Amino acid sequence: MSIVINNLKEAIRGESKAKRLYESFSKKAEEDGFFFISKIFHSISFAEEIHIKNHLRALSVITKREYKLEDIITIDENEIQNAVKTTRENLRQAIEGELYETKKMYKEFIEKAIANENDVAELTFNLAKKAERIHAKIFKKCLKNIDKKNIKTQKIFVCQICGNVEFQRPPSRCPICEHDKKFFKEI
């Protein structure tokens, strides 16, 4: 069980760093004149916050103890600011991070949760993994289209249950967690 608890804490640290990075990447994209990419970074930062809350909730349920984010992580702002590059490079970093989470980190965490028969951890890891896969696709599309002068601005909606990101309008049911469209927030 301690491996599952450690994995939850590691996931919280990773999601917290990603959230803070994406906030900084959003600001840089805006400075670079990529306003829609800035909005995407901002939206996915919001989605990472949902993953953090879900993981914290799971950790509290499993340990029967209330956790606060500051119990687990402190963010090194210098490290964050030193990671901010051009918007193109920031998109590449974001893609790399999201793919690491989906292909390696969450895959291993889910396997350990299953091996330890921990449904709560398995659920939160699975929801995050599926949302991160979508985040990576969104960032890849942004990178592919970054040189186009007219990236189409769209409404962005984030599922407040799992962190899924949708464009134009929310689906009637979230394709990841299957919750109703009323759980989507326009960013």
Keywords:
187 residues; mainly alpha; three-stranded antiparallel beta sheet; 5 helices; 5% strand
Describe, in plain words, how this protein is organized in 3D:
This protein is mainly alpha-helical and 187 residues long. The protein has a single domain (2-147), classed as Ferritin, core subunit, four-helix bundle (Ferritin). Helix content is 65%, strand content 5%. The chain contains 5 helices and 3 strands, in the order H-H-H-H-H-E-E-E. It has helices at 2-31, 35-63, 77-83, 87-115, 119-145, and strands spanning 156-159, 165-167, 184-186. A 3-stranded antiparallel beta sheet has the order 2-1-3. Strand 1 and strand 2 form a beta hairpin. The protein is globular. The mean pLDDT is 96.
Domain tally? 1
Q: Main sheet?
A: 3 strands, antiparallel
The CATH superfamily turns out to be: Ferritin, core subunit, four-helix bundle
Overall shape: globular
* Structural class based on helices, strands and sheet pairing: mainly alpha
- The name CATH uses for the topology is Ferritin
Order of helices and strands: HHHHHEEE
Helical content class = 55-70%
Q: Which ranges are low-confidence, i.e. pLDDT below 50, for 5 or more consecutive residues?
A: none
The overall pLDDT average reads: 96
How far apart the termini lie comes to: 37 Å
Give the C-level CATH assignment: Mainly Alpha
Number of strands: 3
Our estimate of the beta-strand percent is 5-15%
